[in-house]
From TrEMBL:
PANTHER family: CILIA- AND FLAGELLA-ASSOCIATED PROTEIN 46. It comes from the Eukaryota. InterPro entries: CFAP46 (IPR039586). GO terms for biological process: axoneme assembly; cilium movement involved in cell motility. This is CFA46 protein.
Length: 154
């Protein structure tokens, strides 16, 4: 919340989304957000693809979305229990398609121009630092996505 408030004035007028952990977003909300945005940020627990339906995503066409930033793969005891229960009902292939590289490929096939994603499990503090660096470089300094990724890699 602090990071969003800090960079609020640098966002476009059309900034909208879902913040908080009161309730899970519906598939209709995910679809509305992804199809109407030019950039999409997911900052959440576990795998991004565990929050959306695979069949629904692969059928989408979202070429207006030029950038997807996935700051996911954060695990808590509660999120691990949720994902473990969810994974019981999925095939091994389905779970494999939720991994970071496969998620990036699926998003690319739907028309997304660039994908920035974590590759391994992390913690909330590290993802907050990544978000701060992303916003600072993309919004404050006006760096390109590629330049910003180079800063993150250092």
């Amino acid at each position: 919340q602090e990071i969003l408030e800090k960079y609020h004035d640098l966002f476009t007028v059309q900034w909208e989304g879902v913040i908080g952990n009161i309730c899970a977003s519906s598939q209709a909300e995910w679809e509305q957000l992804l199809t109407s945005c030019s950039a999409f940020l997911f900052y959440g627990m576990e795998r991004f693809m565990s929050h959306v339906l695979l069949n629904w995503l692969v059928a989408m066409n979202i070429p207006k979305c030029r950038l997807v930033i996935l700051l996911d793969l954060v695990r808590s005891q509660q999120s691990y229990q949720r994902i473990a229960n969810s994974d019981l009902h999925k095939s091994c292939l389905h779970i494999a398609l939720e991994r970071p590289t496969e998620t990036a490929m699926l998003l690319s096939l739907t028309g997304v121009g660039s994908i920035v994603a974590t590759q391994w499990y992390t913690n909330l503090e590290e993802n907050a630092e990544r978000l701060e660096t992303l916003f600072e470089n993309l919004l404050s300094f006006g760096r390109t996505t590629g330049q910003t990724i180079h800063v993150l890699q250092k």
